[in-house]
Amino acid sequence: MKCVIIDDEPLAVDLLQDFVKKVDTLELVSTFNNAIDAVSFINQNNIDLVFLDIQMPHFSGIDFLNTIEKKPLVIFTTAYSDYAVEGFNLGAVDYLVKPIPFHRFLKAVVRAQQVLQPVANTAIAENNNAPEIEQDFMFVRAEYENVKLNFADILFIEGLKDYVKIYTTDNKFTLTLISLIKLENLLSSKGFARIHRSYIINIKHVKSIQKNKVLISDKRIPISESYKNTFFEKINL
């Protein structure tokens, strides 16, 4: 994973650089001592992961996330735990409180790798020179194995902070570490729709639609106002 460090504390940057060198799957592309200088760089380069401090002079890490166009994965690195909830609401992979021990840093990196994995698999399939075959499944990391899920068997997906529950037709669910945004990007062309901040549904399994709810299996799932128009347009309603 190509990564960038953004932190106004030189000692914190040095520590993170040392940690990155110890992890073979990380490639440090650049470091910045303020978030303003990093905006154009992130927008112009393909970066997978950003280690981002929150409290920085003039332009915070949260300001940075709300400004950039290209959204890499983010691991917050901060001396304060007060912003943890806001950080996860912004889609952060993890939230590390300084001083950061290496084992916690490594755990966060593994989480980021697991989030990227389905997207990476899709990219490999798209770049293959062999005749194109429509991919109708994905692999997700659950516990200590990669579980194959057929798109047709997925009923809906529920977001739980940095984890999701993927409910299937066998009345089971798979819990995996990935963001709803990543799954939305992966599944939007496969007959799925985001209808709520916390839900993605498989349209083919919808039994009925009320004004603000859809019925899938025996579950009534809310439709939020912010997603309603897009969803209704997608199903020509």
From TrEMBL:
Q: Does the keyword Metal-binding apply?
A: no
Q: Which SMART domains match?
A: LytTR, REC
Keyword Phosphoprotein among record annotations: yes
Give residue ranges for domain HTH LytTR-type.
Answer: 147-237
List the keywords (alphabetical).
Phosphoprotein
What the entry lists under Gene3D superfamilies is as follows: 3.40.50.2300, LytTr DNA-binding domain
Q: What is this protein called?
A: LytR/AlgR family response regulator transcription factor
User: Per the UniProt entry, what species is this protein from, by scientific name?
Assistant: Flavobacterium chungangensis
